[in-house]
Amino acid sequence: MSLTNSDIAELTAFRRVLHRHPELSGAECETARRVCAEITSLKPDQIVTDLGGHGVAAVFDGGVDGLTLLFRCELDALPIPEISDQPHRSTIDGHGHLCGHDGHMTILAGLARRLSRQRPKQGRVILLFQPAEETGAGAAAVLDDPKFARIAPDYSFSLHNVPGFERGHVGLKSGPVCCASRGIELTLTGTPAHASQPETGTSPMPVLSWVMPRLAALSKGDTSDPDFTLVTITHASMGEPTFCIAPGEATLFATLRTLTDDRMQALCDTALEIVDQAVSDHGPTAIHRYHDIFQHCENDPLATGIIATALDTLQIPHDQTGLPFRPSEDFGRFGAVSKSAMLFLGAGTDTPPLHNPRYDFPDDLIPIGTRIFEQIARDMLG
């Protein structure tokens, strides 16, 4: 139950092609095309395309009634320029596979190779290549797509590579494993004025300067605390880059993060109370909008135990160190339709962090991830 040396070489080449051609959330057309070409050659029993956008699902059917297992990866890259001298570095200016989704796709392509040679004895395995994970929109779009009903799973599994963990070591626990988060965009509108007469206008500056540190001060605790909160200011701008105008408008972006969904509304309410107080004191109007809404990701105990059994069979070390994670993952939405669990595969302690311009998924994780997923499938379906 393993990939051949030829498989690994070909999959590594496939991963590097994906890495060279990153596409952003919602625009993964060519990535989906490459995935379809790779998977079609393996003759799955069914391929579903344009799922929730550019999503692709490949079905390997055992031909006997049984459970449906879904293994999910992500198609999208990031709007971050890559810094690399590797020959497979990104060819798209300003875009890069700096979260390892190219590696996740390749692991599912490796699993497809194994399933093409030996179908499950019963049930079905669904390999889902999901769009738009980075914005939090993709999983919801897939689940809302009427085509999803044809492949609805009993169990859903996923993995994410994690720099900072020993390479090949797995983080695994039941319960919350990734935080809920959402972006809040504030638009402050006053009245511009001549820079020599700022008193004739209404500046957003007092509100902006008062709100930012108070929002950041809402952060408390760490993810071991059920009441963990984190507010990160990610962008602020005010007026135009000129010396003759006292600005009348400003924009502020912040990311709100909590351990679980039920804590998020309270954090949002508190953040808006801070904004309302500043506006009432200083005059500009404020409009808020939410973006990139992620539900928290919670591992079902039974699904987590299935992963643990597979890891023990393969003698792959695992523990709960570092969990739950601060980052968010829209895989959590699959927990509403199936028993779901995500594992976290160590990418090495000397590897740049995720979303770093120098990050590159370690190719030697491809056979490890493939073995883990196949072991789960064989344990459950034969």
From TrEMBL:
Per UniProt, the enzyme's principal EC class comes to hydrolase
Could you tell me the EC number(s) of this protein? 3.-.-.-
Q: Does the keyword Repeat apply?
A: no
- What UniProt keywords apply to this chain's record, in alphabetical order? Hydrolase, Manganese, Metal-binding
User: Where is Mn(2+) annotated to bind?
Assistant: C99, H101, E134, H160, H355
* Tagged with keyword Hydrolase: yes
**One GO molecular function term?**
metal ion binding
Domain (Peptidase M20 dimerisation): residue spans on this chain: 183-278
Superkingdom: Bacteria
This protein's cofactor list reads: Mn(2+)
Q: How is the cofactor bound?
A: The Mn(2+) ion enhances activity.
UniProt name for this protein: Putative hydrolase YxeP
- Look up and give the organism this protein is from: Roseovarius aestuarii
The primary gene name is yxeP_2
